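TASK: fixed-backbone design
INPUT:
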């Protein structure tokens, strides 16, 4: 009899805890995002299980609020782990987050956004007034399981433009971020096409500091009038020697 009573008490306690968690306000999530992340939840409504919130992207001193709220709900299926389904107009489809005991599996997805969002990254984009379209894609990532080694993010900036120069488009560019065993990140930037040729490489140390070195110059066979139009932009981006501007950030 005693063991049956103990089981009933434990079951009742678990039900009570589950009911309490189910109504926990979504605003509790605001303080769950680490302060050093380039992302913050600045407002939320609903519950932990189904709600919506306002996101801000970028370094803490230059954050920009996304125009549409992010929404989430939990999905429970027999025989599989609970999954969080996240939706936002900039996502090409639902993003799945599958928590484990010490890990979080982030599903592969693509994010499409206007190039103005690049200003959230700081220098040099915050002075370019960028235009065009950006697509960010990533593979399935298991966060919390140790260093993420290999490709992490692929960024494509198409029909790139800047309010600082009348040449439109400037070109199309790609940036690839990959992880290393020492928890640092590598960055490679290349030009796919266009009047402005940009290339370079960078890295982020485990302490979070970024460093980038590259060059920018008119593409080969660019006509003289286009080269003259690009000159003010090249001078703004870095130190110029001849037709080549050195990029150091």
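OUTPUT:
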């Amino acid at each position: 009899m005693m063991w049956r009573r103990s089981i009933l008490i434990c079951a009742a306690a678990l039900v009570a805890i589950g009911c309490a968690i189910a109504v926990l306000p979504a605003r509790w999530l605001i303080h769950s995002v680490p302060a050093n992340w380039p992302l913050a939840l600045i407002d939320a409504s609903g519950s932990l299980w189904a709600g919506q919130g306002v996101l801000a992207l970028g370094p803490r001193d230059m954050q920009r609020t996304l125009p549409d709220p992010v929404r989430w709900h939990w999905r429970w299926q027999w025989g599989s782990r609970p999954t969080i389904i996240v939706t936002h107009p900039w996502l090409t489809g639902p993003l799945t987050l599958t928590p484990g005991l010490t890990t979080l599996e982030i599903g592969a997805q693509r994010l499409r956004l206007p190039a103005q969002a690049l200003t959230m990254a700081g220098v040099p984009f915050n002075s370019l007034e960028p235009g065009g379209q950006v697509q960010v894609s990533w593979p399935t990532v298991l966060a919390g399981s140790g260093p993420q080694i290999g490709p992490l993010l692929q960024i494509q900036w198409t029909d790139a433009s800047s309010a600082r120069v009348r040449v439109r488009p400037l070109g199309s560019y790609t940036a690839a971020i990959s992880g290393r065993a020492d928890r640092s990140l590598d960055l490679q930037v290349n030009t796919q096409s266009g009047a402005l040729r940009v290339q370079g490489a960078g890295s982020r140390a485990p302490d979070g500091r970024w460093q980038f070195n590259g060059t920018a110059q008119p593409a080969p066979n660019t006509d003289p009038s286009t080269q003259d139009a690009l000159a003010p932009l090249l001078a703004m981006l870095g130190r110029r020697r001849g037709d080549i501007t050195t990029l150091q950030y």
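COMMENT: Confidence is low (pLDDT under 50) at residues 1-21.
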